[in-house]
Design a protein that fits this description.
about 190 residues, alpha/beta, TIM Barrel, four-stranded parallel beta sheet, four-stranded antiparallel beta sheet, 6 helices, 8 strands, Amidohydro-rel, Metallo-hydrolase_Enzymes, Amidohydrolase-related domain-containing protein, Metal_Hydrolase
Length: about 190
């Protein structure tokens, strides 16, 4: 179950309390995600830590689309055991005409929103987009290990941090072992 919670302040926190309660009561741990979760942004550290502990214990995951000024504190949440991913739910719609479903671009926006300055923080955006979202929905990690799904893209860059900053064009996109795009153009459906 994926709930989109835009409420902030007490209203949003009350909804979180109810979600934690119902998730526990119905034994839905690991099957509930709250997207956006704006009520958690900007909480004092002690309250964020307490609520994160409740979410982790209940098995409730979180996702963000990395809006400026309202991005979840992903690093802290993950340190506290909360599964937190990055997604894109608005693709040139009324919610955001700037959405393009490009997860590398979304990682760039997350890094900017969280004011990332060093490689470790920049790479957090990449990892949150490339791995954490898959974890939330029970998909295998996107890596190049034998037996992993052959889903990947190739870009020019020296390291993930540079790729997050530069958002280079995809030279090759492979899905299920088949090339679906080359040099930014779709070659197969």
């Amino acid at each position: 179950m994926d709930l989109h919670l835009h409420d902030r302040g007490r209203d949003g926190l009350d909804v979180f309390d109810a979600v934690v309660e119902r998730t526990r009561a119905l034994s839905l741990g690991g099957r509930v995600t709250v997207s956006h979760a704006f009520a958690l942004v900007g909480l004092p550290d002690a309250e964020l830590d307490r609520r994160a502990a409740e979410l982790a214990e209940a098995g409730i995951g979180l996702t963000t689309v990395a809006p400026a000024g309202s991005t979840l504190p992903v690093r802290r949440l993950r340190e506290l055991g909360v599964r937190a991913g990055l997604g894109s739910d608005g693709v040139r719609d009324a919610w955001s005409p700037f959405g393009d479903a490009d997860m590398l671009h979304r990682a760039h926006l997350m890094a900017r929103s969280l004011r990332a300055r060093v490689d470790e923080d920049l790479e957090l955006g990449f990892h949150t987009a490339a791995v954490s979202g898959a974890e939330l929905v029970g998909l295998p990690a996107g890596d190049l290990a034998v037996g992993s799904p052959a889903d990947f893209f190739l870009v020019s860059g020296e390291c993930p941090a540079q790729v997050v900053v530069d958002v280079p064009a995809r030279e090759l996109v492979v899905r299920g072992g088949s090339v679906v795009a080359r040099d930014g153009k779709l070659v197969s459906a």
